[in-house]
Amino acid sequence: MKAPVSVGAAVQGKLARSGFLDGVVRHRSGLICLVAVLVFLATCLVLQWLRTDLDWRHDPLSAYLKGPYGGWLRMAYYTLSAALVLLGAGLYRNLQPQARSAVPVFLLTVAGVALAVTAISETDLPGLDHGQENQLHRIAALTTFLCVTLAMMVQSWRFHYDQAWRVHVAWALPWAVATFIALWIYALWHGLPEGLRQKTVISMILLWLGFAASWLRQEQRVRLQPVQERPPFPQ
């Protein structure tokens, strides 16, 4: 468990040294992450319609990374990648100390990096043949799925230790567990087309991320409101 602890300490140390970064994480991370999730979702939905050469039920999302409009999807991947890291840091900084855990921060950071590698692996990397690119893509995608779903479950449970966030546990935790189960169904059961199974899991992940980002944004707005309502000078 040393790795998660060291990541949490590194996050705190980095934020403490950067007032601007700390302000973004504490006050704007919810909004930024919510926008990133919506941009990723919108890009994926539009491509299901634009890419008439692919079958959305059978072709996984990675098939859309190459060919027409592939660059737009890669940018959406990179945006969501950064949002995962920012969401982990934002939740950590905004939860009460007793509710904080470095584990979801670590898992979301790894998931964010792996998601970026997933997109990069579809750009004809120099020094790698097609088989090696596919292997890198599979490992990165699996790492992303596992880390983000594990982070969802751990973070949902940690909400219980913060009075302001406790109300969200009743939905967040069961949905996170259902998403984790859906991931294993996708991996082990092939009774439905691959694209349909994979995109179902991705949709479940995006829904949790969207709600978590929305809750974070709401909490940040509540905390900022008293400061904004203060008069600029003593009266």
List the helices and strands and how they pair.
Blueprint lengths: L1 H16 L1 H9 L1 H22 L19 H25 L7 H19 L9 H29 L10 H20 L5 H36 L6
Helix pairs in contact: 1-2, 1-5, 2-4, 3-4, 3-8, 4-5, 4-8, 5-6, 6-7, 7-8
What does this structure look like?
The chain is mainly α. Helix content is 75%, strand content 0%. It contains 8 helices and no strands. The protein is globular, with a radius of gyration of 19 Å.
In short:
The protein has 235 residues and is mostly helical.
How many beta-strand runs?
A: 0
Q: Give the distance, in angstroms, between the N- and C-terminal Cα atoms.
A: 52 Å
Structural class: mainly alpha
* Percent strand: under 5%
If you average the pLDDT, what whole number results? 88
Shape: globular
Largest sheet: none
* DSSP summary: helix tally: 8
Low-confidence stretches: 227-235
Any idea what the radius of gyration is? 19 Å
Which features does this protein show?
single chain; 235 residues; mainly alpha
